[in-house]
Design brief:
The chain is of the alpha/beta class. Helices cover 50% and strands 12% of the residues. Strand 5 and strand 6 form a beta hairpin. The radius of gyration is 18 Å and the shape is globular. Bound molecules: BIS(adenosine)-5'-pentaphosphate.
C-alpha cells in the first residue's frame, strides 16, 4: 500500500477525523517536529504532509541538497554536517525564511528538524508572528510542537539500518521497514543509499548535539505549553494516528483563539 492510500486508511479509522474538504480549506499548524536523530521525524512528516496537503520543510534535506549541488552554502556546511555538528543558526534561519515564503507554504507546513537551538526557536516565533499571523488568517502564530521520543540504543539501530531513495526521498529501514526488493525503492526502482552522516561515530555526535543544543528548544516550547510528547517506540502507523489526532485536536481547539 502506498503512503497516500495508507494515510487515507488511517483517516477512515480515526475517531473525529476531519473530512478532506475541511483539511483543504483550513490552515494547519504551523507544525514543528522535534526529537533526536532517528526518532522518526522524517517518516512521520511525510505522512502528515500527505494527510493535510501541506509541504514538508526539512532543514536536513535542504542543506544536503546544497551540498549535492555544490553551492557556496553547500561548501560551507559540508564538513559541519559530516562531523554531526549543527550548522550555524543564521545560515539555517535564512534558508527557512526563504522556503516558508514560497506560495505552497502559505496554508501550513511541517518543519522537520527546525528549530534545533533556542536561538532558532526565538527567531521562528518572531518570523511566524510577523510573516504569517499578521495577515489574520492563522489561529495562532505559535507552532504545534510534536516531540517524538525514543531511547538511545533504538535510535542507533534505526539510523544504522536506514536507507533512503535519492529520487523520491522515501525512507526505509532494513530491520523494520525493508523495501520489497533488497536495496531498491518500491516506488521508482532507484538504488537506495545510506546517508554519509549515518555512520555510527557521526550518529553519536548528532545525538550528543541534540542533548546539548536541541533539548532547550523543548523547554522553550514547554514554557509556552506547545509541546505534545509522542512515543516513538510504537509501530509507524500507530505513531501517525496519535500525531494526526493531536494536530486535529489542537487545530480545532485553537480556532478563534488568537494567541
Ligand atoms: P537531519 O536530516 O534533520 O537529521 P536528524 O535530525 O539527525 O534526523 P534524522 O533524519 O536522522 O532522523 P528522523 O528523526 O527524521 O528519522 P527517520 O524518520 O528517518 O539533519 C542532518 C544534519 O543537518 C544535522 O546533523 C546538522 O548538521 C544539519 N542540520 C539540519 N537541521 C539543522 C538545524 N535546524 N540547525 C543546524 N543544523 C541542522 O527514521 C529513522 C529510521 O527509523 C528510518 O529507517 C525509518 O524507516 C525507521 N523508523 C521510523 N519510525 C519508525 C517506527 N515507528 N518503528 C520502526 N522504525 C521506524
Amino acid at each position: 500500500m502506498d503512503d497516500l492510500a495508507l494515510a487515507e486508511k488511517i483517516d477512515q479509522k480515526r475517531i473525529g477525523a476531519s473530512s478532506v474538504a475541511e483539511q483543504v480549506l483550513r490552515n494547519i499548524g504551523p507544525i514543528v517536529m522535534l526529537g533526536p536523530p532517528g526518532a522518526g521525524k522524517g517518516t512521520q512528516s511525510k505522512r502528515i504532509i500527505q494527510h493535510y496537503r501541506i509541504p514538508q520543510v526539512s532543514t536536513g534535506d535542504l542543506l544536503r541538497e546544497h551540498v549535492k549541488q555544490g553551492t557556496a552554502l553547500g561548501l560551507e556546511v559540508r564538513d559541519i554536517i559530516a562531523k554531526g555538528e549543527l550548522v550555524p543558526d543564521h545560515l539555517v534561519c535564512d534558508i527557512v525564511a526563504w522556503r516558508l515564503r514560497e506560495p505552497d507554504a502559505q496554508r501550513g507546513f511541517v518543519l522537520d528538524g527546525f528549530p534545533r537551538t533556542e536561538t532558532q526557536a526565538i527567531w521562528l516565533d518572531a518570523f511566524l508572528k510577523f510573516e504569517f499571523f499578521e495577515n489574520g488568517i492563522w489561529a495562532s502564530y505559535l507552532p504545534i510542537v510534536l516531540r517524538i521520543q525514543l531511547d538511545y540504543n533504538k535510535l542507533l539501530l534505526r539510523i544504522t539500518g536506514r536507507r533512503t531513495c535519492p529520487t523520491c526521498g522515501r525512507i526505509y529501514n532494513i530491520h523494520y521497514q525493508p523495501p520489497l526488493v533488497d536495496e531498491v525503492c518500491d516506488v521508482d526502482g532507484t538504488k537506495l543509499v545510506t546517508r554519509d552522516d549515518d555512520r555510527e561515530e557521526v550518529v553519536r555526535e548528532r545525538i550528543a548535539a541534540y542533548e546539548r543544543q536541541t533539548k532547550p528548544v523543548a523547554e522553550h516550547y514547554k514554557r509556552l505549553a506547545r509541546v505534545t510528547d509522542i512515543n516513538g517506540d510504537l509501530p509507524i502507523d500507530e505513531v501517525t494516528a496519535r500525531i494526526l489526532e493531536s494536530i486535529d485536536g489542537k487545530t480545532q481547539g485553537a480556532a478563534g483563539s488568537k494567541n
